[in-house]
Design brief:
homodimer; Lyase, Ornithine Decarboxylase, Chain A, domain 1; TIM Barrel; ten-stranded mixed β-sheet; eight-stranded parallel β-sheet; 20% strand
């Protein structure tokens, strides 16, 4: 596999501290020890002062300079485009990052599951949009239970029967629940058909005694990874057109359209061209990953460089006795098997694969920038950030290679 | 995609309660509620008496009849073949299942990571073989710390430098550490080259003051999924021949060979033909999965039916408004993206995919056995059990559809 020069150069230099080095006197701390230190120091964001290379591996690391830059870039762009950001917490599952996003101007936080909403609310996040409809009596009851305590919790519906169920449950819980209508962008995954069906559902929500209509959402997942900015823009705007027309119907019918949420990291600088869209449900921009790097950006057809790779996995070389290859301790349970495979930060001429559950594999190409010895550590740019984060209980927040905080991935595994 | 009749029939009828039904009055319990009930009832294996269909989804379910049958089949087979089982806990990460394995005759439990060993020992499992070499000072120190408390903890080495590090750390910790030599079956992933290199390493281990040689291991991961029993048998025996010859060298040199561990679920009824092999490191047999079903067995070239699919994921249909398809709540974060995809138990003519992080997708073929409505629940046979288990904090142990226990997946996420 060869890589265009520009992408390879970007990957080598991306983020702070691109050079991979290990201090000579690595002491070593386990995840449990680091969590304890963080707790003893008064919790999150307390400087811990250890080198990230002292961490036991595999370890999930977020570079604070890159994370902060990514959040600032997003906020600057959407603001100048006249819309807002409502970042999706399914990416990071981390209350500390949700707080950073709200403190820098995001209008709310999206979640995919009721359990994610519950955990974030437990951690003080109280502006929550649940982007998935709840369809079972149990989940609906759980959501209404949360709504009792959280005024800023907005739910989603995409069928008339479900809207009636939500209203009945809201009344039983003694609340009026805020609801948006999920409109299908054409992917047929979730959402009601735009146009008259969506309008009629919105009118029903508006009439039902237990519900308060807040607008609509239309998430076009299928457009986020279209390669090439122009192709991505064309597809996005075409697929959001029906939702925009639906929003006009809402308005003409006197319905609330204060929320028209959609879009993601791949289309964050495109979505504002859809009339009436209020905010983008961006997730991956905080971390970036190898999948998004490959889609290309407005300025560079090969590399999507609007955001910096901030999320990496530290791994250790376990075996190096065979020519042309090495084995690490970061396999599928540390990296997932998403493609493209994770990439070794700061190095070139190496292919990393994580197809084995417990072991990663490095293959050196003829122009490999180095070879590894047993015990060497390396840093991997994640393939697809969402499922990788979902494997870890904590991430280490580092700046210039020094651990500043241990962040609980409090909503990890919250899939219900 | 079409399936041979025999495989389809096996999948439809596999395990207890193949028919998918939902009781008319589903009440519903969250994972937290179920864990609390289990605790209040005195912990694991206390009958809880709820229908599995009352569980919030996605939920990981293990069928006790199938699990017990799989464990019995394995134990009966290896015993009649004159070897033992040393099941790998990387598959289940669950102390309750490790206990069942030891109580039914397994000679020990394998683990892939020190952190797994620590968690299992905390839960009373004290015959542990760590199949991965520890190469950093931190991990070696952690392992020797465990060895202080756990006499039955055996470690692995595959280089002379590492053996010396282990010995020095053992002496510093005031223990003599039990060690096996990891011999490479030809996959070049881990392990030392068989023959003289392995012999010399074993002799070094035998001499080092902090170590006690217990034998060797040779895990041939590359042979486990070879399709067709004859092909699998031929490859396995060929690749284990060098390890068997190495064991003879050990014996001729007066070295300890009480452990010669290797093999897995795909070769459990083949490995005993390798002279001197003492036990198989079988993992997936407890649960089975779609990947193993496809390899074929000694009696059936299409279906590996020696073990029953015992591990399933319960999912709920979220959207059914488009012809030919439905969307569920079990995507990549509930099922992984391993292939072959998960299969819907008890149904035919449906393709299930979990490529989206949050959503599963059902496509109906012309001969689909049914279609689903919003809110319907279904049961998925997992694709690849190890990484699926690693996504969940608990599994529900059911018999005839009734939840008998909530088992903590205590070593979930323990990848260090």
């Amino acid at each position: 596999m060869t890589m265009p020069f520009s992408r390879r150069h970007f990957l080598q230099t991306a983020g702070a501290g691109a050079a991979v080095w290990v201090p000579s006197a690595v002491h070593g701390y386990t995840g449990a020890e680091m969590a304890r230190r963080a707790e003893q120091s008064g919790g999150e964001l307390t400087p811990l002062g250890l080198s990230m290379w002292d961490l036991d591996t595999p370890a999930l690391v977020v570079d604070l300079d890159a994370l902060e830059a990514n959040i600032a870039t997003m906020q600057r762009t959407v603001t100048s485009n006249g819309i807002a950001s409502r970042p999706h917490a399914k990416t990071h599952k981390c209350p500390a990052i949700a707080r950073m996003q709200l403190e820098t101007g995001s209008v709310g936080i999206c979640v995919a599951k009721v359990s994610e909403a519950q955990v974030l609310f437990d951690h003080g996040i109280d502006k929550l949009l649940l982007t998935t409809s709840n369809v079972t009596p149990l989940k609906i009851r759980r959501a209404m239970g949360l709504r009792k305590w959280c005024d800023g919790f907005v739910q989603t519906t995409d069928t008339a029967a479900n809207a009636r169920d939500l209203s009945a449950a809201a009344e039983a819980a003694g609340v009026v629940a805020d609801v948006v209508v999920d409109v299908d962008p054409g992917g047929h995954r979730t959402g009601i058909t735009p146009g008259v069906p969506a309008l009629e559902l919105a009118q029903l929500v508006d009439r039902l005694p237990g519900l308060r209509l807040r607008g609509m959402l239309c998430y076009d997942g299928g457009s986020q990874h279209v390669k090439g900015f122009e192709a991505r823009q064309a597809q996005t705007l075409e697929r959001l057109a029906a939702a925009a027309e639906t929003r006009e119907r809402f308005q003409r019918s006197g319905l609330n359209t204060e929320i028209f949420s959609g879009g993601g990291t791949g289309t964050y600088n495109i979505d504002h061209q859809t009339p009436g869209l209020t905010d983008v449900q961006v997730g991956s921009y905080v971390f970036m990953d190898a999948q998004y790097i490959d889609i290309g950006g407005a300025d560079d057809p090969d590399v999507y460089s609007d955001f910096q790779p901030a999320l990496t996995i530290l791994a250790t070389v376990l075996n190096a006795q065979y020519a042309g290859r090495a084995t690490t301790d970061a396999g599928a349970k540390a990296c997932t098997i998403n493609r493209p495979w994770s990439r070794i930060k700061g190095e070139s001429g190496m292919i990393y694969t994580s197809g084995s559950d417990e072991f990663g594999s490095i293959r050196y190409e003829a122009d490999a920038s180095r070879t590894y010895a047993v015990g060497d550590k390396l840093e991997l740019i994640v393939s697809h950030c969402d499922p990788v984060v979902n494997l870890y209980d904590q991430m280490y927040a580092v700046r210039n290679g020094i651990v500043e905080a241990v962040w609980a991935i409090a909503a990890r595994g919250r899939s219900t």
